[in-house]
Amino acid sequence: MEMPLPDAAILSAKARIVARLRGVLPADAVIDDLTELRAYECDALTAYRCPPLAAVLPRTTEEVSAVLRACWEEGVPVVPRGSGTSLAGGALPTADSVILGVARMNAVIETDYDNRFIRVQAGRTNLSVSGAVEAEGFFYAPDPSSQLACAIAGNIAMNSGGAHCLKYGVTTNNLLGVTLVKMDGTVVTLGGPWGEASGIDLLGVVCGSEGQLGVVTEAWLRILPKPEGARPVLVGFNSNEVAGACVADIIRAGLLPVAIEFMDRPCIRATEAFAKAGYPDCEALLIIEVEGSEAEISEQLTRIRQIAMAHDPVEFREAADEDQAKRIWLGRKSAFGAMGQINDYMCLDGTIPVSSLPLVLRRIGEMSVEFGLDVGNVFHAGDGNMHPLILFDANKPGDLEKCEAFGAEILKLCVEVGGCLTGEHGVGIEKRDLMAVQFAAADMEAQMRVKDVFDPKWLLNPAKVFPLATSAARRAG
Amino acid sequence: MRPETEAELVEAIAGASGPLLVRGGGTRTIGRPVGEVLETSGLAGVEMYEPGALTLVVRAGTALAEVKALLAGERQRLSFEVPDLRGLLGREGVSSIGGVVAANASGPRRVQVGACRDALLGVRFVDGAGNVVKNGGRVMKNVTGYDLVKLLAGSHGTLGVLSEVSFKVQAQPEAEATLVIEGLADAEGLAVLRKALGSPYDISGAAREFGRSLVRVEGMTGSVAYRAGQLRALMAGDVMMREGADSAALWRRVRDVAAFAGRPGAVWRLAVVPTAAAAVLAAAGGEVGGGEVGGEAVWDWGGGLVWLLAPEGRAEAVRAAVAGRGHATLIRGEGAPVFPPEAPEVAALGAGLRERFDPRGILNRGMMG
């Protein structure tokens, strides 16, 4: 993945720039030591690394504003960083950039159960937002699988989803307002606890803009009362087609499970070897979770069972208690870890229309043979968000490149059948150069115009999202 | 002008010599845009409907009624309960789906499923320079590039003219029931709504009009009966239950603000923090009438949305009342800006976007900001 060459003038001015940052931040909030900067050289897309010029860890909106203003005046690019869990390289620095980490901004500012919102500093981790309201019977719905570590700031930047978004939506559907600092240091409030932003929906375009429009320092989030209970069922099928048809029938019947997860045979076998969850050895497996009271759960499961039985499953397993429920989820939750035991892997997240599921899985299987790389599929079937995991050996010369080429072919296929390159991970650098597969020049131009308004000098996270050649003139200033 | 294809729409916009007043059916236009009328009703037709994937793609000029009928044929619907404001605004005409999107028109179910913008999966539009732009798509999860879909929803035709929109649709529920709670003063009647919304019973409507609080649940038959029963036990006051078509009729009234149709006065739409709903009205009303209210309200979204009928010419009092706890839009009336004032740094961003998407400033000039 190509990154722009660092600006030599900035590299040679490091001492002055660092001194300027120290002038606006407490001493412990500026890192310029090369060894310490290693911690910021990559995010969860670990194949690409580059230590930044410096890293700053502000504690307040005012400090963020001061840092951005200083960098804006110096013409230094800034790469915002939540917890560094991006799988797309969203927080990958360049050698001439300053990493702005929001990890120290993790306070809860206000909880309001009567109006059902929480206001937090954006460095707070996703799971700890739910943790803060749990005792009162509330939760924050978006639940990316990295939720223990990932920050709300990153969730907003990438518009993160999760397993339960089939019912509850993704970040943008649960975000009420933000405090945003623009690259020139201006502090802007968009939306608020009143649930509907006024004017043009700037909040809507900020969410998912991958840290390119501003740095979100605080957020108002919608919290929801927890359901009375939840229960998963596991259904195994001997064909991907049939499993896909079963998913369509459930949706068609008007049922609204909170999650419908899908695993294919390679993934089932890998997780069985690793986690021993007791899954059947079949071609496709669905985990379907429903919520409500005991009576409501059984009403829904009765219907789901009827629908599933019509497709002749090899197994239909209902969790009788909490322990069995955990076992049903165990394999799914350890899928990534299990694949990681076998080899290095690359995780894609293109989305496809649910109706194209059988075709896409068949084509991925064929491509796996062509490229000579194994692939396992685990994904959110209810909304068509795929997660093919391509296995490769990072120590084998050429394997990463082969894996990336395979990944690109899968994503092109997703677009071809009417889907998109990324459903919840974001473009970052990983899918940057594939944007033209999905978008015409005018489509990207329209998006870049939005950045022109928020960040006219193109200093915030500049080498991401758009193909380098497409954004070159703007980045050159 | 009435283009019938996207190419004709491009021509109409690129070739325009002055401002264009963009109009679907003209049934919900607010603001006072000027210019030659550009009607979108010629851009009609269904591109794709996949009931099994809950996905609908239609051209933007398609009549809302046609969309609803198509979905109803498969026992599905638009989730966000589009208000019909013709009675309130005294308009005739055929509401278009593009107009719904341009206004982000969203009804009572917003408390459960979100607004129009939350169900909108993709758009195609022609910007003010005549460029065709597509964004989003037809799949439910999509974070590829910036979300211009949200930007276009609620932009009232000022950033571009929609040519195609796609939605995530919803299955019609088996059953619905509404608890009608009478005999409570406004403050308690609104507190009941918040209590219901804070319960685990998945409320799909929480409104108050004519001194009655309404709480709706929808879903599978057994589940609706269970939740209605649980909610009833939570409520004080006289509680009655309305089901099926009776329940639906109650919500059509709330959705369309039927209470204020045909009555004189200005109509305001206030988005506020729900606990401030009663105080905001008292503040606005205290100024307005000198009496206890001087205006009347229909509350929706658990108090987060206040429809206020007030005498004309009281904009300052109304806007002062919501300051710091929400904002007020003038839906019907004269003598004040329609859209809420914005902080200068926010207004600058909006103006910057309009300038770049419509460099000549010809689309619905004078509508927003």
Give a description of the structure.
Chain A is of the alpha+beta class. Chain A folds into four domains: 8-103, Uridine Diphospho-n-acetylenolpyruvylglucosamine Reductase, domain 2 (2-Layer Sandwich), CATH 3.30.43; 108-225, Uridine Diphospho-n-acetylenolpyruvylglucosamine Reductase, domain 3, CATH 3.30.465; 230-335, Alpha-Beta Plaits, CATH 3.30.70.3450; 343-416, Alpha-Beta Plaits, CATH 3.30.70.2740. Chain A is 37% helix and 18% strand. Chain A is built from 18 helices and 18 strands. Chain A has helices at residues 8-12, 14-24, 34-37, 61-74, 126-133, 152-158, 165-168, 202-206, 240-252, 265-275, 294-309, 322-333, 335-342, 357-371, 399-416, 435-438, 441-454, 468-476, and strands spanning 30-31, 54-56, 78-81, 98-101, 108-112, 117-121, 138-139, 175-181, 187-191, 215-222, 224-225, 230-237, 259-264, 284-291, 315-318, 344-347, 375-380, 388-392. In chain A, the strands form four sheets. In chain A, strands 15-12-14-13-17-18-16 form a seven-stranded antiparallel sheet, with helices on both faces. In chain A, strands 5-6-10-8-9 form a five-stranded antiparallel sheet. In chain A, α10 crosses α13 and α14 (357-371) packs antiparallel against α15 (399-416). The longest helix of chain A has 18 residues, at 399-416. Chain A is globular and about 70 Å long. Chain B has 369 residues and is of the alpha+beta class. In chain B, the strands form five sheets. Chain B has a five-stranded antiparallel sheet with strand order 3-4-8-6-7.
